[in-house]
Amino acid sequence: MIEANNRIALSLSAGTLILLALLAGCRVGPAYHAPAPPAVTAPDYKESTVNFKDADGWKVASPKDATIRGKWWEIFQEPELNALEEQLNINNQNLKEYFQNYMEARSLVAEARSQYWPTITVNPSWSRSRTSSNQHSSSSSSNSSGSTSSLWTAPIEASWTPDFWQKIRNEVREAQYAAQVSAADLENEKLVEQASLAEYFFEIRGQDMLQQILNQTVAADQKSLDYTQSQYETGIGDYISVTEAKTTLESAKSSATNVGLLRAQYEHAIAVLLGKPPSDFSLSVKPMTYVPPPIPIGVPSQLIERRPDIAAAERTLAEANAKIGIGYGAFFPNVTISAEGGLESALFKHLFDWPSRIWSVGPSVSETVFDGHLYRAELHEYVAAYNSDVAAYRQTTLTAFQQVEDDLAATRIYSQQLLHQQQAVKNAQEYLSLEQARYETGVDPYVDVMTAQNTVLSAQQTLNTLQVDEMISAVELVQALGGGWDRSQLPTPEQTGAKTTNADYTIQR
Predict the structure, then answer these.
(1) Residue 177: how many CB atoms within 10 A of its CB?
(2) In a 10 Å sphere around its CB, with 0-12 CB exposed, 13-18 middle and 19+ buried, how is residue 48 labelled?
(3) Structural domain tally of the chain?
(4) pLDDT of 6 above 80
(5) Which end of the chain, N or C, is more open, meaning fewer C-beta atoms within 10 Å of its C-beta?
(6) 143 in any annotated domain
(7) Is the dihedral of CA 436, 442, 447, 448 positive or negative?
(8) pLDDT confidence band for 138 (50 / 70 / 90)
């Protein structure tokens, strides 16, 4: 009889496995296809060819379809900046935060995949009990009343929910795509931090140059004051010229002092980017000006593959699509197969005897009969979220094209403006020289010299600002192009679920 029961159980198990194999091929939910981004019809960026095609100034790199690779900041050929960028990639706390977010997302992939497997538990126990002596009636036997007994058990329980409707697979896909989003977010944050460092670096060098300009202005104004003072003391000049010279000198000193504020703030910002307290970091003073190099911009059709934020937006779509599949799976019944086996005996010495074995096996099916249309509402929610993400993806792509065009225009227009401003500085210096000569010969009052000095200083300050703005726009152009990143560097869904070790999740102190 026992053997017959065993054969029946084996037959049922075989039938269950066959049924699982047949149902495993069922798929619910829509297959994912990346939506088409906004159509790119132009072979080139508008601002790279239409404006200033034959003019002097900044040019894009040739060939036009070349792209930046790897460490993009090296294109500026500034060793000090290169060293700072390397420190940032190691010590920046924001990057560490985003990296741990990615590692967390990978853990969620492993959590989702664990549902493929059965859950097995063991629950060995021992109990000793005594029954009541007063539980029998007058007509019943009292032989078993008031008895004491022991029970040893060593059960093993297994429970498995087959993925009939690919609900688990969709949950795994969702987790994998979410991990890809996190990886793309990490790369985007890295690009933002690297670009910020480069911008702060060139801002500091611009402040150093401005400091030099103002220091030279203070020295020139001091000479003018000394001259007007001596003229007044010899009776040739008047006192009003002395007061005007003093006013000009003090104004120049005030401006020269104020330069230190922005420089200090940029220096503090770089320290934080490098993961250091501002008190532990300083950047030496080097008055320098830069000319942005030709930047390889590629062609518009390449931009979608080069921007990590676009990759994140597209992977968010894939994640939302997997969630729709989960929503469809909720309409189908859940099937759970449970099995229990083990040993049970009143005496420990007989616990491992063959007659002490116990077992049971059987499936269970649960289905929600009525939920007030909850599952339907959730499915509609997931579809609406997906459609919203489609619009967000396309908007992200449009914004990327806008940023490239904006930065191309800015870099080229600043380079053109600089040519005119450089000439304006030369003219202002010539004007000052002529005006000083007229003042020294008594033709013009000193107030005209002061006006010429202010003209030179204003022209020099404008030139310095334009030079910094041109470099900042070049950095922003590289950032808008995605730096040296491309989509091939994004981990695949399988890579996000690759096995990790405990060493990857060491608690930071």
Answers:
(1) 25
(2) buried
(3) 1
(4) no
(5) C
(6) no
(7) negative
(8) low
Give bridge partners of residue 150 from the DSSP assignment.
128
Q: Residue 156: which domain range?
A: 2-125+151-499
Q: Is residue 138 part of a domain?
A: no
The residue type found at 426 is K
* H/E run at residue 234: none
> Tokens 């949950």 sit at which residue?
171
The pLDDT tens digits for 381-395 are 999 999 999 999 999
Per the domain annotation, does 508 fall within a domain? Answer: no
Joined together, the tokens standing for residue 23 give 């149902």
- Residue 141, in any domain of the structure: no
Distances (CA, A) of 214 to 12, 260, 406, 453: 92, 12, 32, 12
C-alpha of 339 from chain center: 46
Continuous segment of H or E residues that includes residue 153? strand 148-160
Banded pLDDT at 210 (limits 50, 70, 90)? very high
50, pLDDT greater than 80: no
CATH number of the domain that residue 35 is part of: 1.20.1600.10
> What pLDDT is stored for residue 52 in this prediction?
55
Length of the chain: 509
- Close Cβ partners of 327 (under 8 Å, ≥ 6 residues apart): 29, 375, 378, 379, 381, 382, 383
**For residue 159, which phi and psi values (nearest 5 degrees)?**
-140, 135
Nearest to 93 by CA among 280, 267, 277, 282: 277
Q: Which two tokens mark 355? A: 């007659």
pLDDT of 461 above 60: yes
